[in-house]
């Protein structure tokens, strides 16, 4: 039975999202996009806009499964904190919709999609395009979000396959 998976690549400036259908081991692209907030706006307003946009994506695509990329810290503590706040809004938006949420380190996503945890953005985009033929990516953050959705689909299939073998 086909399931809809939503992946998110959170960011305060740009949050990527991608929705796919998973039917057994077949993946199909539904939609992808990027939610942008204006850096000149107050932080609270940007977070509220991010929440509202994510709620609209969730309402439109009605995912059954969702996943979010984890935050990598960097040398700029202020940027890391803002990224963490955007990620918190992403997690909250999914939880508010009643979705269980998978969380994946960027290296796990790269390894699942490209085969190596040290892949660059262009390699991720190329493999997402190969795994989802005909996809028109709206940008690198949307490609990363689709990669998160694909990773979650693979992990979910592995867990379910294992559960069926144990029970059978």
TrEMBL record:
It is found in: Cytoplasm. GO terms for molecular function: crossover junction DNA endonuclease activity; DNA binding; magnesium ion binding. It catalyses: Endonucleolytic cleavage at a junction such as a reciprocal single-stranded crossover between two homologous DNA duplexes (Holliday junction). One of its GO terms (cellular component) is Holliday junction resolvase complex. Its main location: cytoplasm. Mg(2+) 1 binds at residues 9, 141. It holds the Pfam family RuvC. Mg(2+) 2 binds at residue 69. InterPro entries: RNaseH-like_sf (IPR012337), RNaseH_sf (IPR036397), X-over_junc_endoDNase_Mg_BS (IPR020563), X-over_junc_endoDNase_RuvC (IPR002176). Keywords: Cytoplasm, DNA damage, DNA recombination, DNA repair, DNA-binding, Endonuclease, Hydrolase, Magnesium, Metal-binding, Nuclease. Binds 2 Mg(2+) ion per subunit. The active site is at residues 9, 69, 141. The keyword DNA repair applies. Homodimer which binds Holliday junction (HJ) DNA. The HJ becomes 2-fold symmetrical on binding to RuvC with unstacked arms; it has a different conformation from HJ DNA in complex with RuvA. In the full resolvosome a probable DNA-RuvA(4)-RuvB(12)-RuvC(2) complex forms which resolves the HJ. The RuvA-RuvB-RuvC complex processes Holliday junction (HJ) DNA during genetic recombination and DNA repair. Endonuclease that resolves HJ intermediates. Cleaves cruciform DNA by making single-stranded nicks across the HJ at symmetrical positions within the homologous arms, yielding a 5'-phosphate and a 3'-hydroxyl group; requires a central core of homology in the junction. The consensus cleavage sequence is 5'-(A/T)TT(C/G)-3'. Cleavage occurs on the 3'-side of the TT dinucleotide at the point of strand exchange. Belongs to the RuvC family. This is Crossover junction endodeoxyribonuclease RuvC. It comes from Zymomonas mobilis. The gene is ruvC.
């Amino acid at each position: 039975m086909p399931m809809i998976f939503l992946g998110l690549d959170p960011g305060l400036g740009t949050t990527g999202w991608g929705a796919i259908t998973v039917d057994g081991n077949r993946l199909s692209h539904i939609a992808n996009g990027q939610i942008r907030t204006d850096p000149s706006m107050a932080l609270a307003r940007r977070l509220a806009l991010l929440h509202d946009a994510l709620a609209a994506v969730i309402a439109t695509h009605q995912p059954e499964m969702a996943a979010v990329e984890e935050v990598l810290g960097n040398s700029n503590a202020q940027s890391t904190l803002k990224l963490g706040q955007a990620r918190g809004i992403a997690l909250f938006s999914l939880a508010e919709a009643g979705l269980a949420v998978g969380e994946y380190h960027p290296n796990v996503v790269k390894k699942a999609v490209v085969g190596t945890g040290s892949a660059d953005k262009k390699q991720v985009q190329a493999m997402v395009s190969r795994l989802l033929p005909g996809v028109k990516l709206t940008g690198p953050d949307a490609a990363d979000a689709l990669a998160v959705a694909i990773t979650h689909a693979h992990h979910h299939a592995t867990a379910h396959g294992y559960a069926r073998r144990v029970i059978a």
